[in-house]
Amino acid sequence: MARSRPLTLQTFVYRTLAIRIAVMAVLVAAATTAAVYVIEGRNLRNLVVAEVQADVQSVARRTMEIVRAGEGGQHTAFRRALDERLAATNGRQGGRFVYIRFRGTGTDDEEVRMDHDYALIGPVVEFIRAHPPSGDETGITARIVMIDGAMHVYAALPIEYRGERVGVTQAVFAPAESVLAGIRKNLRRSAVITVLVVLATSALLYPVILLLARKLVAFSRNLLDANLESLAILAGAIAKRDSDTDVHNFRVTLYAVRLAEKLLLPASDIQTLIKGAFLHDVGKIGVRDNILLKPGGLDEQEFSQMKDHVRHGLDIVRGAIWLTDAAQVVGSHHEKFDGSGYPEGRAGEAIPLLARIFAVADVFDALTSRRPYKEPFSCETAVAQLEQGRGSHFDPDIVDAFLAISGDLHRRYAGRDDQGLRDEFQTVITRYFSGGDILLD
Description:
- There is one protein chain.
- The chain is α+β, with helices and mostly antiparallel strands.
- It has helices spanning 9-68, 74-89, 121-130, 177-241, 245-262, 267-278, 289-292, 300-317, 327-330, 353-367, 379-388, 396-403, 406-413, 419-433, and strands at residues 95-104, 110-114, 141-147, 150-161, 164-175.
- Helix 1 (9-68) packs antiparallel against helix 4, helix 5 (245-262) packs across helix 10 and helix 10 packs across helix 11 (379-388).
């Protein structure tokens, strides 16, 4: 079991929340930039496609005009129209046609013009061969295609004469590098603006979130302070009825916490252990005075009534949401590892871990403390008693862990009833409840 370092709500808000906001801002910026990239790229590319469409349609119309004027057949008219159009667009800064083919319907005759000086003319020809017109086109088809990693515009247009299709024109247009550079520049600019807007928005929202978080921290501290006060009041009420319980609660809680730390329990479990240890005998409030304060031993019937303090304790802690988890200790601290304990006769790991830890601490403090009916045992005698109960009363692994620190704990806490003990208890409360903050594991 790895023990986590306590993380307070305030730390979570001021550090973790800030990191998460930054991460979310970056993610939103990335998603928004991607959307802008797609939209902006589509708009810019559509301009190029529209230009190609206009050129191809112009060639098709001029071809039909020449045919209708009787100035030549389809191929002659197409060549003439194409020459005129290429001459008109010669030197156009937006780019150039690098491949144009006219193929008649129902024939293998075709007219091809290609720019042999174009570096990618080979891949362009291969692309055209791999994408022959389907023959069922009803209008111009134009789209962006990537040929050998470079952006091109491919267009296919059916040509009709007197209501009948006479051929199909295919063309590949290569945008000028200046056009491509403009697209990349606009995309970069849009991306940068988007990122800056998102980050600026996050930066403006962070102080607002921080202000709300500070109020949340204050409310949490007030609530936890009230809960801790309730814990102290309940423990004090027990002390009013049993003069030994007050100091016993301080000592046994410190023993239990140090043992839990030795076992590397997480901070959240130690919080629960503190509440359960401090209130383990809270149910004695419901036990009659003639039994609770009886100077001698209890008979069987009286002991049966004394055991009811566990049930009374569970009723009390389960009545408050903040104390509900303390039921692990309150309800099971008299169970024994071999199943001979009460109230349910649980055995082994069926007993909550925190209750098994507390049982060792509770008995050790009882053995090393002065009671009206006995003197305190030495550390060695108490340890021998724990070892004797190893595997029957106590979890063997927990006993082994406690024995490793028993000498030091005995020197620090055994028999003490002074302000220093209470100060150390308060230090533990401050550490694990972080001075009023909630611990987040």
